[in-house]
Write a structure and sequence with these properties.
Layout lengths: L10 E5 L2 H14 L5 E5 L2 H10 L6 E6 L6 H11 E9 L14 H6 L2 H8 L2
Helix pairs in contact: 2-3
This protein binds S-adenosylmethionine.
Length: about 120
């Protein structure tokens, strides 16, 4: 993603692991994109709430959600606040085990966001 951004483009990366992100940093540096990436080492919910508190609502173009699944709904809600109108949210793994995640199923209720479920059910 950083490679596709213009020179003044910025990514805020949320993670809690200094170990994993040390590896990531190595490759960001090799790819020449380290200066575009602002790594926030803290639980992502804290980082997203801080961004909202700092007045960054409506200022992001894109959100990619790919951390702890239990918080997917919370990340989604924060992303809705932080994105500009027309911004894009992508969520990894939502189609995992699709045959067992039918809209309305017990499993689906626990793993999917209610607004996404309603959207899927109306298809
Ligand atoms: C599947 S990996 C993300 C990979 C990354 N999106 C990529 O494409 O390279 C999940 C990451 O979420 C991080 N993580 C787990 N719980 C978190 C939390 N509460 N807040 C922020 N990051 C978290 C883990 O440390 C791990 O690096």
């Amino acid at each position: 993603m950083a490679l596709a951004l213009p020179a003044d483009g910025k990514i805020i990366a949320c993670d809690i692991s200094s170990e994993y992100t040390a590896t990531a940093r190595k490759y960001w540096r090799q790819a020449g994109v380290e200066s575009k990436i602002d790594l926030r080492l803290a639980p992502a919910l804290e980082t997203l709430d801080t961004l909202i508190a700092e007045g960054r609502a409506g200022s992001f173009d894109f959100a990619f959600i790919d951390a702890d699944k239990e918080n997917y709904s919370n990340y989604y809600e924060r992303a809705l606040v932080l994105l500009r109108p027309g911004g894009l949210i992508t969520v990894d793994n939502v189609l995992w085990q699709r045959p067992r995640h039918r809209p309305g199923s017990e499993r689906c209720r626990h793993t999917s966001h209610p607004r996404l479920q309603r959207k899927n059910s109306s298809r």
